[in-house]
From TrEMBL:
Pathway: Secondary metabolite biosynthesis. This is Cytochrome P450. Pfam families: p450 (PF00067). Heme binds at residue 437. Belongs to the cytochrome P450 family. GO terms for molecular function: heme binding; iron ion binding; monooxygenase activity; oxidoreductase activity, acting on paired donors, with incorporation or reduction of molecular oxygen. Keywords: Heme, Iron, Metal-binding, Monooxygenase, Oxidoreductase. Its cofactor is heme. It comes from the Eukaryota.
Amino acid sequence: MQAGGHWLWGHEYEAWSTTDGEFYINNVNELGQAFAMKGGLFLAVTDPAAISHIYSKHPYEYLKSQIIRPLIDRLIGKSLVWAEGDQHKRQRQMLAPVFTNENVKNMDEEVHNAADKLVDVLREHIHTERVTEKDGSVSVNILEWSCRATLDIIGNVGFGYDFQCGRSEEAKAIQQSWRELVLMGMGFMGFAAPLVVRAFPFITDLPVRAIQNQGEIKTIIKKLAMQLIEQRRAMQSDEGMKNGKDLMSTLLKLNEKAEGADLDQLLDHICTFVMVGHETTSAAINFSLLELARHPEMQEKLRKEVTEFVGSGPGGEPTYEEYQKELPYLDAVCKEGLRMYPPASHAERIAMIDDVLPLRFPITTASGEQVHSIRVTKGQHINIPTIAINRNTTVWGPDAEVFRPERWLEHGGVPAASSLTQGWSGIFTFIEGPRICIGYRLALFEYKVIMSALLKNFEFKDTGAKLATQFSSTLQPFVEGQKHDGVQIPLFVRDLHQ
Ligand code: HEM
């Protein structure tokens, strides 16, 4: 058991409020890869064998908590993120064909168009700003920009809707609502609410404005998707509508074959893709840009690679396959960014059975005994701090907390597979097992296309602002001492072609 902790909420406040998962990282380094926390009676686990046991071998015996599921439903509906057990298996089987390599490859045009539009609107913004640095760069909160492209992509590939690079009323409403939710989660209420809901679960149904507002984004997206379905029905036959290229058309086709699936659930799927797909991907891009701004030599190296490479796609752009195989430094920056800053930086599961968690790295108990497994009882809350898994010094070495893309290119730079979790590239950012992020191929493709477009056109420089992060739905950055100003990553941005 970790020592100390508040008399009422144990270690939970410390864990919730420290930056970059520091609480977990420090404890893992000191106590080992599994330790008990006072408070909500959590067991924190980062050990790869225990993680694999929970996520890959027994995913339906370790479930999301009853606190989180009503919130997920309210925010994005009863789709994959919400479903458990057989319901999840059925939904996953139905949705898996949507995000295959082949399908993501076919999203190429939408992804490139969105990246190009982002470059245009960012350029326009820079040139209309009056306050510039000596070199002509402008201070920009990059958070407000990259999400425009990722929302555009998922709008287009999801249901053929154009969010106009953040300019449509719906895009503005979604962003506004999301920011409010995130800010609420970062205030004291964000910490206290889960504790209260744990004690009084019915509270999630109370007609309290802050709670009911969580449904706003779902309402906007479902309304838009329904309007589009009706428009298409009015314009063409049902057959024509199902032959569209977007995910909604694919789902309409699959929907017919799937037993028990209905239109409302289809809209929940669309809503889920839009929300979990766009914020996470833009967060990944933002944190990488921050690190590249802090390391100009890495930024220049990456710019050189993406500028000099002549691909076999239209206009010399790399093709989907070339983005995967022919741009090694871009790949390394992408992996390192996702390792250091997993957007979904924390997760929680509840044991549904009495069980034993195996440990790859034995731990020493307070009495000095070395143990190779931990007994858990039904109802045990388990905290899985992804950020601490990805930055674990025992596994990644003393520079685990340093952004160093080169490690992915060096012989022996990446730890042996047996010390790592089994997700994509041995990091836990997309988790592992049957619930691994269904959209990860699309996310990686978007990341690479958007990052290349931005670096070819702009230079990013550190403003010197001291940043901290906190988990609120996803990993949120803010300027230290200025949390009330909202989430931000301020960067100086200069147009390279002016
Ligand atoms: C860098 C970007 C992304 C990251 C870091 C990310 C991360 C994750 C993580 C950690 C989970 C597992 C959550 C859990 O069970 O605890 C997840 C699940 C999911 N993600 Fe992503 N995601 C990203 C992009 C996307 C995109 C682009 C889409 C779709 C358009 C998407 C759709 C989903 C869905 C539907 C699930 C639920 C899967 C299931 O439970 O079977 N994600 N994602």
